[in-house]
Amino acid sequence: MEALEITNEPSQKKVDVDADDDGREKRTGSWLTASAHIITAVIGSGVLSLAWAIAQLGWIAGPAVLITFSFITYFTSTLLADAYRAPDPVYGTRNYTYMDVVRASLGGKKVLLCGIAQYVNLVGVTIGYTITASISIVAVKRSNCFHDKGHDAHCKPSDYPYMALFALIEIVLSQIPNFHKLSWLSILAAVMSFAYSLIGLGLSIAKVAGGVHTTTTLTGAEVGPNLSSSEKVWRTFQAIGDIAFAYAYSTILIEIQDTLKSHPPENKMMKRASLVGVSTTTLFYMLCGCIGYAAFGNDAPGNFLTGFGFYEPFWLIDIANICIAIHLIGAYQVFCQPIFGFVEKKCRQRWPESKFITKEHVVNVPCHGAYPINKFRLVWRTSYVALTAFIAMIFPFFNSFLGLIGAGSFYPLTVYFPIEMYIARMKIPKLSFTWVWLKILSYTCLVVSLVAAIGSVQGLLTDLKKYKPFKTE
């Protein structure tokens, strides 16, 4: 992602001791800040649904699928990290975005396909986060309402005011110029993700220790009066999709890597950050998923925090939901910065003489000092955040559709492109042992994506049947 330069003449070459060797803003990121970005992106609110996912798959398949996807994600992320510089992974030319990497390694129509998959996914995630954050804030309002007025009270606050509040916060934060300035927000968001995960984990452990009887099985939720065989299949598909997409951060991996200092080599630091990020998230996923399943059994809720009710301990549930909202505020910025950077780069290239697009105005911000403000950035980013909030209000079931968007992006961005670029860069002979097993991995993940897409479509159709615009449920 291209850094913004403070200059009145875009054609002038910037001379700055703080600039990198290619004239861009000097990178200061480390494996620690990259790990924070990864954890912020990966440990999303999806961790809350893992107890439900394992309840559909059971004690054998559930943990096995979790471990399998952690290995796949880490492996393909190392392949993608080596593609950041081309043709040499250490001394080659930098590529600032995922599309640049695909262009350097593969070229042709695959660059366009990569862009469609990446940016459609990023837009979908930002809309989904707007919905999920508002749900968490509403959960706080409901728990306090029940605590004050009793458990039989009518406590159904609307999501829409909180979507608007979330959008206002994101409008302010969206003026952070680029990924390089986002580390503090990612670290805060990562801390919040640990906090609500630990609260949910602690409540699950307490429930298990309390001796509450639940039914768990090796194969998960059983077919019976409350679950037909077809519903079992759909839920299994959705569970596999939930787990697969819970690990997918390849969409923004290159943009994260572009924040790293050049020494030690970026690919080595990124591999270390990926190992830390994926290992940490897998540990949390296993704990929250498995212990959550033990606590709730085959009836585990989609969000295991709400499974403890909106009642007592209401204050602890409130803290967890506030942490979710804060985490999603940071995660929203991690996912939308590549979109901002892409549009702003294209506009500067298309209208290089426009001062509205290129000129930076330095503003003195209290307690901060000088801060660059760009009129185009202000208008465009505000418009984007407002649009995503509006779509979230119109389609509040969008999280179901998000699974379908994820199904369309997981395979190409996390598996297909990293493997194809590695084969092309290393000139691996067709039908050789390495070529064959890489292709088997690729096609297997394609099948998983298709299966998850089918499950998501079924869930989407179910949502559409009961859809009533602007109606509070």
Automatic annotation (TrEMBL):
It comes from the Eukaryota. This is Uncharacterized protein. It comes from Smallanthus sonchifolius.
